[in-house]
Design goal:
Structural class: alpha/beta
EC number: 1.8.1.4
Shape: globular
Number of domains: 3
Keywords: Cytoplasm, Disulfide bond, FAD, Flavoprotein, NAD, Nucleotide-binding, Oxidoreductase, Redox-active center
Number of helices: 12
Helix content: 25-40%
Family: Belongs to the class-I pyridine nucleotide-disulfide oxidoreductase family.
Distance between the termini: 69 Å
Strand order of the largest sheet: 1-2-5-6-7
GO molecular function: dihydrolipoyl dehydrogenase (NADH) activity; flavin adenine dinucleotide binding
Oligomer: single chain
CATH class of the largest domain: Alpha Beta
Strand content: 25-35%
Radius of gyration: 24 Å
Number of strands: 23
Cofactor: FAD
CATH superfamily of the largest domain: FAD/NAD(P)-binding domain
Largest sheet: 5 strands, mixed, barrel
CATH architecture of the largest domain: 3-Layer(bba) Sandwich
């Protein structure tokens, strides 16, 4: 095994493996250290690929197809008869997708000449010209590696809460919720964020009675209020019992059931579930990552302190993804990994944090980019907005997806687009149009002057832009026309 590299990346998740590959493309000798073992095999791809983004989307798709076959085909004139779900087969499909993709990442590292070191990496000393990293192999051997540059990309893990300790069977985290052998009759979920809504949706479609507890007084507080209001209406209509301003004070297993105690405005209530999912957020994973005296500065929240280019306080040491400030999103980590490597190479790469997209993959999807109406007003903008309901979009109706809306937020004085928000079919893809427009500092007029193909769901973006000036064609507007 080599003991000296130009670049050592600690962490083989989306940000880490992309940084390693880009480093190799730029001519560095690169090692990527990853300790994850998934279902008995060493695995690259981090949380996202193994127990996060990808497997959850596989289950979301399977469960949606099941629900569509069972409840929605009749209106298309399609008779399906009795429909059943083989959960074991669904999980097998999910696992095969994960296995194929993780193998693909391993192939990419190998094809680019990156050494995948299977084990734990610890930064021993980052202060000198030669950084020192301890490598503890999965097989037990330990060695010291030197590198000119180090990128820390260890990712994050689910936050544990003392009032609902996970046991891997009855009370589980997001990883355990991907492995239920059957749909629980009664399912509780602590946390109405991205993970809670997605996993709650999966098992609700498969037959579970789902209650989602949210301690915050508002549903999806990070989203634009019009979008969160519409999303709450649609999700509740689907059967998700979402309870805001509800704090879980205790959860314990009694006779094979989970007894959950909550506090709602001082009133104590108790409910019983077959399973409980705890998904109240994630925290940076720094265990065994930083040796005492390595020189790295941490923030008060335990994150690695970095500048806008992800450089730490030590020359030649960078940190990316969930270890640092900003949203814990795989695509953010990916771009930060690329930026860090290119900065090391002497290029002027930069991530535009104002255009990071957020997506919740419920059905319909919820997504946004840029400023919400509330944020824009708080920042002093004179705001104008435009919205268009998908109930008036021909393509959405033809697909049986005529629910939700698209909303744009703009500066009244300059006409500059400030944000785009959506709840509806393909919302995650739709808001990429807003991201591109924001990157190029587009105006609402720019969107108004573009020709959108008919019939497409994207026409709703055009109509929303027109609506910002009272010019929507397929909706009656009370706003003064310009």
């Amino acid at each position: 095994m080599k003991t000296s590299y130009d670049l050592v990346v600690i962490g083989g998740g989306p940000g880490g493996y992309e940084a390693a590959i880009r480093g190799a493309q730029l001519g560095f000798s690169v090692a990527c250290i990853e300790k994850r073992v998934h279902k008995g095999e060493p695995a690259l791809g981090g949380t996202c690929l193994n127990v996060g983004c990808i497997p959850s989307k596989a289950l979301l798709d399977s469960s949606h197809r099941y629900e569509a076959a069972k409840h929605e085909m009749a209106e298309h004139g399609i008779t399906t008869g009795d429909v059943s779900i083989d959960v074991a087969k669904m999980l097998e499909r999910k696992d095969n997708i994960v296995k194929g993709l993780t193998a693909g990442v391993a192939g990419l590292l190998k094809g680019n000449g990156v050494d995948w070191l299977q084990g734990t990496g610890t930064l021993l000393d980052g202060k000198g010209a030669e950084k020192k990293v301890k490598f503890a192999a999965l097989t037990g051997e330990e060695s010291e590696i030197t590198a000119k540059y180090v990128i820390l990309a260890a990712g994050s893990v689910p936050i544990e809460i003392p009032v609902a300790k996970t046991d891997g069977e009855y009370i589980v985290d997001s990883t355990g919720a991907l492995e239920f052998s059957e749909a629980p009759k009664r399912l509780g979920v602590i946390g109405a964020g991205v993970i809670g809504l997605e996993l709650g949706s999966v098992w609700r479609r498969l037959g579970s009675q789902v209650v989602v507890y949210e301690a915050m007084p508002e549903f999806l507080a990070a989203a634009d209020k019009d979008i969160s209001k519409e999303a709450a209406k649609l999700l509740k209509k689907q059967g998700l019992d979402i309870r805001v301003n509800t704090k879980v004070t205790n959860a314990e297993v009694v006779n094979g059931e989970v007894v959950v105690t909550t506090d709602v405005n001082g009133e104590t209530k108790t409910e019983v579930f077959d399973r409980l999912i705890v998904c109240v957020g994630r925290r940076a994973y720094s265990e065994q990552l930083l040796a005492e005296g390595c020189g790295i500065t941490l923030t008060e929240r335990g994150l690695v302190d970095v500048d806008e280019q992800c450089k730490t306080n030590l020359d030649g040491v960078y940190a990316i993804g969930d270890l640092v400030r900003g949203p814990m999103l795989a695509h953010k980590a990916m771009e930060e990994g690329m930026m860090a490597v290119e900065r090391i190479h002497g290029e002027k790469a930069q991530v535009n944090y104002d255009t990071i997209i957020s997506v919740i993959y419920t059905h319909p999807e919820i997504a946004w980019v840029g400023l919400t109406e509330e944020q824009a007003k708080a920042q002093g903008y004179e705001v104008k907005t435009g919205s268009f309901n998908l109930a008036a979009n021909g393509r959405a109706l033809a697909q049986g997806e005529g629910v939700g809306l698209i909303k744009v937020v703009a500066d009244e004085k300059t006409d500059r687009l400030l944000g785009m928000h959506a709840v509806g079919v393909g919302a995650g893809d739709i808001v990429h149009q807003g991201m591109i427009a924001l990157e190029f500092v587009s105006s609402i007029e720019d969107l108004q002057l573009m020709t959108f193909a008919h019939p497409t769901v994207s026409e709703a973006v055009h109509e929303a832009a027109l609506a910002a000036d009272g010019r929507a064609i397929h909706a009656i507007s009370r706003k003064k026309r310009k």
